[in-house]
Specification:
Strand order of the largest sheet: 5-2-3-6-7
GO cellular component, one term: cytoplasm
Keywords: GTP-binding, Hydrolase, Metal-binding, Nucleotide-binding, One-carbon metabolism, Zinc
Family: Belongs to the GTP cyclohydrolase I family.
Order of helices and strands: HHHEEEEHEHEHEH
CATH class of the largest domain: Alpha Beta
Number of strands: 7
Pfam families: GTP_cyclohydroI
CATH architecture of the largest domain: 2-Layer Sandwich
Structural class: alpha+beta
Catalytic activity: GTP + H2O = 7,8-dihydroneopterin 3'-triphosphate + formate + H(+)
Strand content: 15-25%
């Protein structure tokens, strides 16, 4: 193995992010979804054949197509900007000025280092500066950025940045507590550990506001 390959393995095995945005090529969306599915289908067929699997078996013959559609339409669908949820906001006419917390948002993502699942919960909060957002939109924003090859730190930041932009306020926070199957099911095979990441903006950088948020979500971790 070359030194470069050693370095790449070290990055992946230690789950280190190299960019704050998802690394996409400029031509990422030149190919239509149907074309991507057909191309990925052939790649999956080759992987399974290389592993010695018999693709004439009824249980396996549809697997390449199923995996290709899942990659493009589902688990990596968040790469496509056309699928970005509409983050429409509304005037805060009822003048609610306290913290709003949406906790225990179910999160499914995929580790970009081994393409294995990340499963956990996201807890999101904001303090209105004049605009409010629908509760389901917060879930959809989490889901959109999760449906990519990801690292958890980047995902946490992207959720906060999207809400800050939509709500025109810095007062947004997100905490994610998730299990990484690349840690739980391979490598060290530690099935108990989980990873906690946080991003605090505006008033959430203040100890009192941050502590109030953490009390709401009942997270014991100290930041």
């Amino acid at each position: 193995m070359t030194n470069n390959e050693d370095f790449q393995d070290e990055i992946g095995d230690n789950h280190i992010a190299t960019t704050a945005t998802n690394p996409l090529r400029n031509d990422a969306f030149d190919m239509a979804d149907d074309q991507k599915i057909e191309s990925i289908k052939k790649d999956v067929e080759n992987i399974l054949k290389t592993l010695g699997m018999d693709l004439t078996d009824d249980s396996l013959k549809g697997t390449p197509n199923r995996v290709a559609k899942m990659f493009v339409k589902e688990i990596f669908g968040g790469l496509n900007p056309s699928k970005k949820p509409n983050s429409s906001t509304f005037e805060n006419n009822y003048k609610y000025g306290e913290m709003l917390v949406e906790k225990n948002i179910t999160l499914y993502s995929t580790c970009e280092h081994h393409l294995l699942p990340i499963v956990g919960r996201a807890h999101v909060a904001y303090i209105s500066s004049g605009r409010v957002i629908g509760l389901s939109k917060m879930n959809r924003i989490v889901d959109y950025y999760a449906k990519r090859p990801q690292v958890q730190e980047r995902l946490t930041m992207q959720i906060v940045q999207e809400l800050q932009k939509a709500l025109n306020t810095q007062d947004v926070a997100c905490v994610i507590d998730a299990k990484h199957l690349c840690v739980n099911s391979r490598g060290i095979c530690d099935i108990e550990s989980s990873t906690v990441t946080s991003e605090f903006g505006g008033k959430f950088k203040e100890e009192q506001t941050r502590r109030e948020f953490l009390d709401y979500i009942k997270l014991e971790t100290k930041f």
